[in-house]
Amino acid sequence: MMRAETIGQARVSTINPPSRVDIVSPFKVPGYGTGSRVEFYMLRMGEALALVAFLSFCVMWVQWQSAPGVPRISGDFVSFWTAGQLALEGHAADAYQMVPHFLKQRAVHGDPDWPYLAFFYPPFFLLLCAGFALLGYLPALCLWLVTSCACYAAALRALLPKGLRAGEPVWVLLLGYPAVMVNAGFGQNGFVSTALLGGAAVWLDRRPVLAGMCLGGLAYKPQLGIIIPLALAVAGRWRCFAVAGATVLAMAAVATLAFGADIWPPFIAGMAEARLNWLEPINPPYLQFFITVYGAVRLHGGPLVLAYAAQAVVSVAAAFMLVRALLRRPPGARSGRAEVAAIAACVPFCSPFLLEYDLVILAVPMAWLLSEALRDGFRRGERATLLGAYLAPVLFKVTLFDNAMKLGVIAAAAMLFAAVLRRMTEKPQNVTVRGSRVIANPLTALPLRREG
Questions:
Q1: What is the pLDDT of residues 365-389, one digit of tens each?
Q2: Which residues pair with 346 in a beta bridge?
Q3: What is the DSSP string of 289-315?
Q4: Helix-, strand-, coil-residue percentages of the chain, each rounded to 5
Q5: What is each CA distance from 169 to 162, 340, 384, 439, in whole angstroms?
Q6: CA distance 432 to 436
Q7: What CA–CA distance (Å, rounded) separates 298 from 279?
Q8: CA neighbours within 13 Å on the CB side: how many for 305?
Q9: Is pLDDT above 60 for 438?
Q10: How many whole angstroms separate alpha carbon 203 and alpha carbon 211?
Q11: 3-state secondary structure of 174
Q12: Which of 238, 419, 418, 237 is nearest to 335 (CA)?
């Protein structure tokens, strides 16, 4: 006798007496379809290629750093290290002054053609820089990249479901993400930002205090956190919201105790200088690194008013889409991983001041979207979206057609943002039982069908 039963949100057909239900991976189901097997082998090949690319870059990076002097590869770290030196010498406020900071930088690299690398970070990031300045420049640089990259990898690996982590090293794909090499090539902090967002995604449901500490830690780079308070409030994550705010206040208090209250006026003045001398002037050698709508308009000679207006429209639209998605989630579909993935995907549209090494943060929504697709099937357009976002840092380097190709990174990020919101708000899909196996029907929500 056949009877229909409902398991959770999904309607299935079962045999009476009931058989043991075993949820299996589509990669391992005989006869599930040749398409899934092709995806399986392509995924494995992608993991191998990503690992080869990552290790090859590591070998080349060691060779570059072995050259005489201080190479410009990973050269942005010079700004962090010299700012830390000034802090250790008792002149922390000089990190925000061009002349003393530039003289420190010149003493490190000795290159008269190397331009000044300004330091616009809050004083609590200066504490971290001071810790690295206890070491020599090259050991500090190596420790900076190794530890931050390890945190990046650990956060993304933890973001994947346990079933994928155990037998399928999907996280290796994100080691070969081109933005990883871009960030390391600059010596920048994209790994730190991604690790904090990834940690928040992993802990938001189970340990909101730790998630709040991670999101509060993003205040070291304020432009990344603009959307976070609004998103947490709309999602009703009040405990995380409170901890994030307390974390920022605690870091500010520690920085004040370490450097004195006099550290804050130079920092605030430095932010004004960043806007007047770095953000707003038409400076193609600097604007070529911007990944924002504002940067694209200014790079192509657009007026300042138009650039700000375009950025404002995009920022408001992105915030509206995120809020709408958070409010329209199906009942019972609340997920901290999905929420932080959506927040991370929204970040590139919420500030005019983001550079290409900040693209690393897109690894968080990519990891979440890929894990969902591997769990219950790809939706229409998701393969192309993930591939486009993955390769966007490469296309950003192409200067053909008067740098028009740089717009591709904005389009790729927008597609990823839309795909994450769609996946986050969709209703649970139906499944069909065949014998003792439960097989998802991810692409179509079919009514009950009986097989037996």
A1: 999 999 888 888 889 999 999 999 9
A2: none
A3: TB-SHHHHHHHTT--HHHHHHHHHHHH
A4: 70, 5, 25
A5: 11, 22, 21, 23
A6: 11
A7: 10
A8: 0
A9: no
A10: 5
A11: helix
A12: 237
Q: What is the pLDDT of residues 239-282, one digit of tens each?
A: 999 999 999 999 999 999 999 999 999 999 988 888 888 888 88
Handedness of CA 237, 414, 409, 388 (dihedral sign): positive
Return phi, psi of residue 290, to 5°.
-75, 140
Under 8 Å between Cβ of 12 and 5: yes
Assess contact for 50 and 172: CB atoms under 8 A. Answer: yes
The three-class DSSP label of residue 284 is helix
pLDDT band at 411 (very low <50, low <70, confident <90, very high): very high
- The three-class DSSP label of residue 443 is coil
Beta strand pairing call for 10-15 and 437-440: unpaired
What single DSSP character describes residue 19? Answer: P
Q: Which two tokens stand for residue 220?
A: 């070291």
* Stretch (H or E) spanning 432: strand 431-434
pLDDT at 167: 54
Collapsing DSSP to helix, strand or coil, 430 comes out as coil
Alpha helices in 160-237 (DSSP H): 162-167, 178-186, 190-203, 208-217, 228-235
Angle at which helices 363-376 and 137-159 cross, to 10°: 30
- When the pLDDT of each residue in the chain is averaged and rounded to a whole number, the result is 84
Q: Any residues with CB less than 8 A from the CB of 411 and at least 6 apart, and which?
A: 388
For the stretch 172-205, pLDDT in tens is: 999 999 999 999 999 999 999 999 999 999 999 9
CA distance 196 to 244: 12
Give the other-Cβ count within 10 Å of 245's Cβ: 16
Strand order, beta sheet including 22-23: 22-23, 437-440, 431-434
| CA 128 – CA 148 distance, rounded (Å) | 12
Q: Which residues pair with 14 in a beta bridge?
A: 3
Structural contact between residues 240 and 204, judged by C-beta atoms closer than 8 angstroms: yes
